[in-house]
Fold each of these.
Amino acid sequence: MIDPIFLAEAAINGILLGGILALLALGLNLIFGVIEVVWIVYVDLVMLCMYAMYFLYQVQGWPFWAAGVVSLGLGALLGIAVHLLVISPILMSPPINQLLATGGLLFFIQSFATFLWTTDHRSLRFSLPSFEVGGIFLPATRLIPFGISVLAMLALYLFLTRTYMGTAIRAVAQDRDAMSLMGASPQRVYVVTSAVGGMMAGLAGALLVFQYSVHPFFGGQFGPLTFMICVLGGLGNMVGAFVASFVMSEIISIAGVIWSTEMGYVIAFLVFIVMMFLRPGGILARRE
Amino acid sequence: MRATGSLAGRGAAAAVGVVLLAVPLFLTGGWGQYALHVLIQIFIWSFIGQAWSLMGRFGLVSLGHGAFLGLGAYAVALLWNFFGLTPWVGAVIAVVGTGLFAAVIAYPCSRFRVVGHYFTLMTLAVGEVIRLLIIAERDWTGGSLGLTLKTAGSRGLLAIQFADRRVFYYGALVLWAAGLWVWWRLDRSMARSAMEAIGEDETAAASVGIHVTRFKIGITVLSAAMTALGGVAYAQYITYVNPETLSGIGVSLRIVFAVVLGGMYVLLGPTVGTALTIALSESLRIVFGLKFIGMAETIYGLLLVLFIIFLPAGIYGSLARLVARRPAGAGV
């Protein structure tokens, strides 16, 4: 029998991990909801931003917040670049080609990162305290990223609901054709969406370096999981993706403690597969 | 228009067949052996690409073929290493087992209408589950370090292990030709029209009396079983299995790339695409060697993106379309 304290700790770690997963899933889901393209390469953009954090903070000795701002900017630029250079020319192609184009980009980014920085794992060093509450350890390296990602998601929510551009983005997500009929060009909305999605990647990169070391194949660790969270929540459904992030992170965290890390992921993916059959439109969707 | 039906087409096909049969006689020495090695890989991966395209061309885009590949390869390797079961029997078990596994996945997918992006991401999850299970069961499978097949010594035929590459060459050639035959038979059958109708609109297809579930499960099982067989062939040839090279998203993407690059709606599309991607990565590896690790793959990735943007119907597919269009254009 496993000590309940371990389980409680795993559950809390699950919530803290869920915060960052939600950030990734919301960024990817925003792009899917508006442009209807699955960026297989999304978490690899995060990886590039993590390298930026490493070089600026660890090597150049910049203050953390400044490196974080650069990471955010880099993410936005990468997002715009992916859209303009790869997605835009094939916006009318079959979905399989769009998926594969971003898949080719994945090979490109992973290999180029290997070429530039080798496959060494690099991590950032922080000296941050840990808190103990009732026998459960809460390291600041997990609490800070969680707090910031919750704030960022709140900011995204306000952006989408309270600004003109946010309203335009939601309008395109609802009905692309109607938007064109109103005389508005979806292209500008696409670019802004890609930039916002990229910024979320940049922020996630800046937060992931607290706990994970960066290497060229980092994307493989979180990529498939992020897609599955988006599908589980319902592609394009932001609230669903948010809920699904915590469901998946809890499964991974708790099953990881009971069995092993791999089995945690296996069970999470199996839950995903079964949920696909039971609720194909996502966990929050109404059944047809 | 069907080239295989015409006399000239048959003549050309026969000539290519003779050349392919005679190739090993001329490939001797170090470089010859290397060329043979590349050809064997092209045949095996083309076969796997053909298997994938059986589903892909009807809108069942799978990113989980690594699962079938891994199941086939690991089943045979484990049965041989731990129970001494000959791969001849092991392959039958692996192929049938993978077929059953595919049916278990395909039935609910079809029943609950998991299509399009959802089907693709679903298969991706299946591929990841198999890869992670292989890594998790490290006592048996060696985890991410992989597993080397036990050498058979004098019982080479029993173990399907041969020192002479030419045996594998002819084996792979037969496999590839069989794959072409299956593709061609399916292309001419009623099943093709049925599957095309299903790919266009499932509800409409069902309303004219097409048994949607049966066709979808059938094509998935066929594709998975062929992929498993390809995995067995590859494992027997390399005598080493690894979760990263035989399952998971990387290898699944590579299969899809090759097929899409060649064109999935034409008979030789998967072969052309596989030959090009393998030739490309091999030649880039020779050019860059060990000096610039990652550079070869970087160019590979970049070229894939460019090909998909500028030749969306695939290289061979675009050429075939161009040739088909010209006579019609001349008549107008």
Amino acid sequence: MTYLSDDQLMLKVVSQCADSFTELVSRHVDALHAYAYRLSGNPSTADDLVQETWVKVWTHAGSYKVGRVKLNTWLHTVLHNKFIDHVRKQSKFSRSEDYADLVLQAPASFEPEQQSQQQDTIDEFAQLLAQVPENQRAALLLVHRQGFSIGETAEILNLSSTATQSLLARGRRAIRSADTKMRREPHEH
Amino acid sequence: MNIDQFLTNLDTFGADLDQWSDPLERREARAFLRQSLEARRAFEAAQKLEALFMSDAQSSHKAPKHVLDAINKIAQAHANNDNKPVHLAANRTGSWMTKEHWPTAIAAAIPLIVSFAAGVGFGLQPSNWDEGATEYADINSWVYADSLNENTIEFSAFFPAAQEGLDNDAT
């Protein structure tokens, strides 16, 4: 079977090709779900965000302009916008303590034999992310976890590159401060 | 370079000194790290945090199966509909053309047909009409004409009394 690029598959999805859609899902769903999970801190919310994103991919495939941005960037943009809608509907997610409570358990997608080994790391990472506002958290995750450039991150967040760099700087400062605080007061976390 | 400048650059560009934009600042940062304990602690903390992100990215995260199943149902549901486009406009057009709507459409059209026929009938000239029929037809055209002045002259040609009125007005 000839390998088709993401853009070639998307052109087929515009024509309602289910096989092409399934192939795109298989390529990108895991990375999208990981981002959604770290961004929202809630497995159920991550599931909803990812499903809503792919519904939009199927129903609005024509809105993806080949050559303007990479498909991966566009997918994260759609998901991020869904997350913003979700945050606006549920204001409680803006409180960091709720985020921390939701991610103390290992994600269900981790292999069971790995949970005990990674539990401490997951808890520390999740607790650090919980101390950071959603927009800074998004910038940090997009750059340091998802591997996007500043320009791509700016596209996803609908910000200028300067604003994105500023957001990233504030996020790094916030997470560094949270890390210092956690090390000084380990029993409180 | 002082600690504030170092921390500002550390937050702006991250823990990879090669990503710092200014080559001079990169050299100064490396020198400052050798002499400042606070700078080294902050730098190591930033490196550790970035490593946490990368480690999480390299973990074998898989989307849950129920999520994949739900997503794949999106396209499969469409495929089961024989690739018919799921557009509201198409559905609306299709329902308009179904048999149960034809009686309603015909009932709505009957008054239109009748009134059209009546209008045509009034305009028709009976077969036994004498030579005045032409005048009658012209009067009809006068009634529906746009220019009143122009057709007043024509009107007066049929009705001499009207022409007298015009002459009186002229005086």
Amino acid sequence: MFWRILWRLLWASRSRLVLALVAVTAGAAVCAALVNLDLDAGEKLTREFRSLGANVIVSPAQSAGTGSTMDSAVMNRIESLRAPEIIAAAPYLYVIAQAGPRSSEKDAPAPSSVIVAGTWFDQAASINSWWSITGRRITERDDPAECMVGQEAARSLGLMPGSQLTLSSGSREATLKVAGVVTSGGSEDSQVFVGLATAQNLAGLDGRVGLVQLSVRGSTPVIENVIGRVSGALPELQVQPVRQLAAADGRLLERIRGLLFATVALILVLTALGVLAAMAGLALERRRDVGMMKALGGTVRRVMRFFLAEAAVIGILGGIVGWAVGMLLADVVGEQVFATSISPRFIVLPVTIGLMIAVALAGALPLRLLGRVRPAEILRGE
Amino acid sequence: MMAALVQVEGLSKKFGTVRALDDVTFEVTAGEWIAIMGPSGSGKTTLINILGGLDRPTDGRVVVDGTDVANLNERELTRYRAEKIGLVFQQFHLVPYLSAVENVMLAQYFHSVADEKEAARALVRVGLGDRLDHLPSQLSGGEQQRVAVARALINQPKLILADEPTGNLDEANEHTVLDLLQDLHATGHTILVVTHSAAIGRMADRRIELAHGRLTQIVANVS
């Protein structure tokens, strides 16, 4: 009889309940999408952060003194850790070189000093994907014939993509073609980027690197864990986080998650208000019925069970439909914001349904006031 | 002499400063048909509501089938209504989105367990065997009142209370409902009917007449 009456109640009030259902479904869709995004947010957002540059530096121990270098075998040792959190590892060897025309040319302008950064182009590109490049980005790891030039250096040396550049250090010389001009807004703008082997030749430091930049994905504890593992594998070296960036990553992640939760909370309140508006009218309509049911011997608990079950049904239906819509929404947001598809998390379904039942019951507060209806007053027509 | 099913002693009810009932005392024997009469505002409906456990007296004692209604808490009053009282109202007060048989089953549900076959039999008894699945809006006034009578009877109450049961009916339907009440009386039911109708007053065993909340006279009809 309970379900029969419940069905009749739902059917009889369908026009008002559809309004409540729409409110709950819309709220559920946005909540489900945001909760799903939040579950993926750690991974997706830190992946986004990792495009902002290296967050861990491996360098020779301080005791080794300034200007000291490491054996480039360090790259193999880092790789052998097989840490999936390490998205990219770029070795760097910095050399002060003279940039200018070939020394054999006569009447050439005096060469000027530039910082030459020797690196693996593919890894540097992965770590610094946010660099703006005019011309072409070099993707070959150790291109011996080309270089990239920071925009300040390009301006002072009068270089552009396609120009020839000769770098010399002592008697060592390398002539390279400028593939692209880099704009980073940082110190990179005044550097010249060459393949690691080229820099090693210029410096006369074959098989040596000055430091290694790592891009490590994950939250602050994950990054600290990776640092511990790298330190363990490279005990003679110094492994340090780029504190500011790592902390900024964490803070930004926390703020974004806070924003997601605040939005979910706001939407839950708005959804409850939507349900409240629909249910307030319904409560007025049902005063007489409740008075009648109580006059027939229905206890407050038994009578109210119909109305609360009705709200719960709306919560469940709205939660299920809203979850499905929310998963589509999350996918669209994932594509637009993170450029990756967001996989639906099924744990979000019970969470959404639970939230929507709670919201629908909260919104059904006016119906609970029906418990106070005095049958004699209602039957008298008051 | 039969024991009284209903004992009302010194019953008073005040709404603020208005005294709706003032020191009313009477008894009803099981199987009696009582007509409660009087002008508007005389306290008839208040009396029925107190007897039906819908309202509480301000003073006095009301005992129905051994239960002192004035001393019951809210939960006990609800149980009392479900088990001992059958209510019929002038406005019918059917639940509009439930069919005729479901309206009857609703009273069963609040009493104990809903039984559709038994509810259907009750409607057949009041001549609505072909209207079981009709909604109240699809029934005439007389038919709605007969559903209300079937609902009032379904739990075999000790006392049937009817407040102007024919007040909203045309003559033909009034006769149908009165015939029903007469049948119930004939089968031993105890009935208290609030009415303005002198005809109904004459059909009852006794008339209790109220004026300004006071019991003015009790008249026994000679059959």
